[in-house]
Amino acid sequence: MRKMHIVSMVALVAITLSVTPVRAEETPFRARQAERQEKRQESITARCQLITDRMSTQIARHDNNRGLYQAWSQQVISWTEKVKEKATTAGLSTSELDADLATFKTKLAATEAAHQAYVTALKETQQQACGESDGAFKSELSQARALHLEMRTAIMDLRSFYQNELRPTLQSLRQQAAQEKK
Amino acid sequence: MPTSKMTPLIVALVVVVGILFAGWQYRATTTTSLPAEQNATTTQPTEIVLPSGAGVEEAVDSATVDLDRGASNLPVPAADDLSDQNLGL
User: Fold this and answer.
1) What is the ipTM of this complex?
2) Which chain B residues are Cβ-neighbours of A111 within 8 angstroms?
């Protein structure tokens, strides 16, 4: 029994001695780990603040732009309807104008949808910028970039449709009206 | 100066300070409600007005002048809006 007691004591001392250096080594490792974690958290906080500010500016700017192209598009629709009314009174065919107006409205709806999708993606990106995952943030940003390109293309398409299709149709009706007068 | 004579003076001073503070508060809340960019432009479409008796030619001329001007002022987003550089990444 006494032998057993001595063996137990020796074993206990041996275990204590063997564990002590490991614990001593663990302390700086954990400190470094905590430091790295703290730095990472600081970096996420900084990114979150920066991206939140930039994205808010982008959202405000694009909402403002949206108001401008909506107002202009509304003018296009109103003017086209006014010209149509005058042309119908003058007995001119407005089928081409009708088709152009329908196409313009379709393009306007597409621009609206593209704008909405882009702003939603910007808000998602803004949220991910404040999250832990770098991958999720980059993925959202990449999607927002693709939608930004689509929205830009849609706005340019809308303008170019007026300049290259609708405007010539209006001018053609003007010429027809002038010829009718002669 | 006796205290009874100072009382109206103090009351007047408090009222003046109160009015100034209220004015400053009102100005602060009304001028910071929107970002500068949003204040810069109006988005209301202008009303279409044609002289009575105007025909197709006058309507088209007025329409193209108005719409051309709008088209040239239409803001197209810059291609690099979301570049790493613009986002400060």
Assistant:
1) 0.72
2) none
